[in-house]
Amino acid sequence: MQLLKDKILKYGRIYPDNILKVDSFLNHQIDPSLLAEIGKEFAKRFAGEGVNKILTIEASGIGIAAFTAYAFGCPMLFAKKTQTKNISSEVYTAKVMSYTHGKVYDIIVSKEFLKAGDKILIVDDFLANGAALEGLISLVEQAGATLVGCGIVIEKGFQGGGDRLRAQGVRVESLALIDKMTDTSLTFRQ
Amino acid sequence: MQLLKDKILKYGRIYPDNILKVDSFLNHQIDPSLLAEIGKEFAKRFAGEGVNKILTIEASGIGIAAFTAYAFGCPMLFAKKTQTKNISSEVYTAKVMSYTHGKVYDIIVSKEFLKAGDKILIVDDFLANGAALEGLISLVEQAGATLVGCGIVIEKGFQGGGDRLRAQGVRVESLALIDKMTDTSLTFRQ
Description:
Helix content of chain A: 25-40%
CATH topology of chain A: Rossmann fold
Shape of chain A: globular
Number of strands of chain A: 11
Radius of gyration of chain A: 16 Å
Oligomer: homodimer
CATH class of chain A: Alpha Beta
Largest interface: A-B, 30 and 30 residues
Distance between the termini of chain A: 11 Å
Strand order of the largest sheet of chain A: 6-7-5-4-8-9-10-11
Structural class of chain A: alpha/beta
Strand content of chain A: 35-45%
Number of domains of chain A: 1
Order of helices and strands of chain A: HEEEHEHEEEEHEHEE
């Protein structure tokens, strides 16, 4: 998606350890017209697949999921992160390792809103090692719902999570796929 | 806003201690067409005020803020909740008491995205005692920005936070203002 790649090149900032900050337009300050275009692009790529619900994880996935759901004309659902010891029986839960924060947390969604028969598109802002996505996929599987695929805004291809999921047969569509980062540059996969 | 009140009456669920759950359409599963209407309504109510940024707090404010920002044609910014002991000098921070979770947390926004000269509309899903809103207002004041007002989806009028802020001169617009709740019913302010 050229509009997004242009934004990344213009406003993204690269820090050591392959950190790409896009917090001026995607995950702290947010450009809603970009979200609207992202939503339309996912709706185009996954058209005709019967998607009836968009699933994401708080917090930075929510805006993306909301506009994607709007483009599909269906509801969205966001998994909550929790460190509560007592997980209710009314939720599906999965463990996710956060490499950024160096800890494991639980993600939960209410069983009421994720059902067998649902056709789920998962969306998120970043895909790196794939841990968050695997947690979300686990929630979909626990519900007996169908995973249509994953729509990712920025994939760090060199961290391997996306290609590992593709090798497992998951359809992963990334709007900007970065194959290489140095301390001063990044290269998109063609 | 009649569409919203109808949704609350039809899908909202009342629990003891004045808890109103709207997680089937507003803050867990989310109806994006409702968010779009909410955004347009805030843009109408605060038209002509020069709003150039929408501020909210994660997580359930994000979808609302994204569609409100889209209706205004301006960016949005969400404050992050953190329990980090070391707050960077690059952020504005405020303490917020969560009555729901019985603890105090810090909220932060990057100084880079909140500036003197900004005209800020704060939006959120709920207003009860006003603690979260006061934290957000503090961030706006620290930046020397102008607070245009607060757009709230559901205000629990009987908990007093909204009227206390109005008495301080803050313009608070709530799309559904509940004056009374019992274990089985709720009454909107006319």
